[in-house]
Amino acid sequence: MCYADTTENPDGTATAHCYCGWSNTYPDHDTADAAAATHIRDAEAAEAEFAATH
Q1: What is the 3 state secondary structure string of the chain?
Q2: I want to staple 22 with a disulfide (CB 3.0 to 4.6 A). Which of 13, 14, 18, 52 is the partner?
Q3: d(CA 42, CA 20)
Q4: What is the pLDDT of residues 14-26, one digit of tens each?
Q5: 32-38 contacts: CB < 8 A, separation 24 or more?
């Protein structure tokens, strides 16, 4: 399971990051927050698919 979060940067951008190593910088907090949520949903879907087939 992934847990993504965001960090505000001094230049006004925001970074979305996860303990799994995924990380991207976005122009603002809202965009980074949406990317973090998408990352979590995608990871959960992949884990569910794997569990269903193994």
Answers
A1: CCCEEEEECCCCCEEEEECCCCEEEECCHHHHHHHHHHHHHHHHHHHHHHHHHC
A2: 18
A3: 13
A4: 999 999 999 999 9
A5: 32/6, 33/6, 35/4, 36/4, 36/5, 36/6, 37/4
CB 15 within 8 A of CB 26: yes
Q: Which of 13, 53, 29 is nearest to 5 (CA)?
A: 29
Contact by Cβ (8 Å): 27, 13:
yes
Q: What pTM value is reported for the model?
A: 0.83
Tell the residue number behind the tokens 């992934």, with chain if given: 2
Q: Which of 47, 37, 40 is nearest to 2 (CA)?
A: 40
Q: What pLDDT is stored for residue 49 in this prediction?
A: 86
